[in-house]
Amino acid sequence: MMQRIGKHIRDRRLALGLSVPRLANAAETTTRYMEMIEAGSRYPSLMTLFRIAAALDTTASELLVGVEAPLASVG
Known about the structure:
Elements: H1 2-15, H2 20-26, H3 31-39, H4 46-55, H5 60-63, H6 68-72
Helix pairs in contact: 1-3, 2-3
């Protein structure tokens, strides 16, 4: 699941031609933390996800597309 969120963020960032440091700065986080989110080793907090989405000119919902389905099969 974390990899899917990170991939959506990375794909959108690359489509916009943004560097990781530039996105991190716009989302008010560190470059290292943004790298970890994109790599799927960290979950962003809800507020961070909203800031990332705003910096990517999209919505948090768009970044989460496809993440919900795998969760439905858990449990």
